[in-house]
Amino acid sequence: MERQEVGIMTRRSKCIAALAAAAISGWAHAIDSLPSDAGAQWQIAVGPYLWLPTVSGTFRFTVPGGGADASGGPYNYLQNLRFALMLQGEARKGEWSVFVDTVYLNFGRHESSVNATSGVLGTRETQQSVQTSFAGTLVQLGGSRTVVRRGWGHVDAIVGLRYLGAKGTLDAAIGATVGSGPGASSNFHVAQVQNIFDGFAGLRGRATITRDGAWYVPFYLDVGTGTSEFTWQALTGVAYAAKSIDVSLLYRYLAFYGSGNQLIQTLRFSGPSLNVTFKF
Questions:
Q1: Among 52, 98, 228, 256, which is most buried by a count of CB atoms within 10 Å?
Q2: CATH number, domain with residue 104
Q3: Does this model's pTM top 0.85?
Q4: Which domain holds residue 239?
Q5: Residue 90: CB partners within 8 Å, gap ≥ 6?
Q6: CB within 8 A of 224, min separation 6: which ones?
Q7: What are residue 100's DSSP bridge partners?
């Protein structure tokens, strides 16, 4: 098992290194092959958006005397969501750009299953009710350089940093075991926080559908590592561009994979996104 895990990590590391090298190589080549940006004007794009992902994962909680792995989600937006805030922006000058994306999600308690390894939670037979909740702040900062520009669209090489501040809570009702006296049952609560910093590299761009470029297909793919053992993100969909506003309907997937005693063992966001971007 250990050899298999090492092999998986090695392949992931090679994949990340290869993509990063390709992005950097393409970036460097583009500097020589594309026109100068000296006369270009700054273009600013800002917009709120609504992303409705299914959120699920596995959390590793540290409890007195041991630990417990809890499977959280999929969280239901109508029943579990308490608050959400999403905003993105970009500043572009010629072939260069910087971009930022922020997401805050807060989900209330959700019925979960726990694999109690040891400690006060005991065995599954002693756990009468288990609930988890999750809140997270996602911030992505990146830069890009156009490496391909053709009549059908363009492709950018991207590098950046992804931050996830995650808080998970575990609430369990622990039942009395055989032979325990009155009052042996109790409630247990634990809350943990993890800050994840991951670097990423990848590609993004658009492919036009119509000759005037008004309708197009945006696409994005990145992979990374850092605090997480591995993270990756992908999105695509369809969009319409007017003079001062873009409207797009996308499907977005984002995943984190942790290791050891990290709170986030796996965390996946996947679902549709409606974006409205104002251009200045």
A1: 256
A2: 2.40.128.90
A3: no
A4: 2-34+50-279
A5: 44, 45, 46, 97, 98, 99, 100
A6: 16, 162, 198, 199, 200, 201, 230, 231, 232
A7: 89, 141
Domain count, the chain: 1
C-alpha to C-alpha distance for 7 and 145, rounded to whole angstroms? 33
Q: What is the pLDDT of residues 208-258, one digit of tens each?
A: 999 998 999 999 999 999 999 999 999 999 999 998 999 999 999 999 999
**Residue type at 109 in one-letter notation:** R
Distances in Å between the Cα of 59 and the Cα atoms of 26, 70, 203 are 38, 5, 30
Which segments within 80-214 are labelled E, that is strand?
81-93, 96-111, 113-116, 127-150, 153-174, 186-208
**Domain for residue 39, yes or no?**
no
Could you tell me which of 29, 110, 102 has the C-alpha nearest to residue 73? 110
Within its chain, how far is the Cα of 277 from the centroid?
Answer: 21
pLDDT tens digits along 25-77? 444 443 344 444 555 789 999 999 999 888 888 888 877 666 677 776 566 55
Closest residue by Cα to residue 85 from 104, 108, 66:
104
Query: How do 113-116 and 127-150 pair as beta strands?
Result: unpaired
The dihedral sign for the CA sequence 110, 115, 117, 122: positive
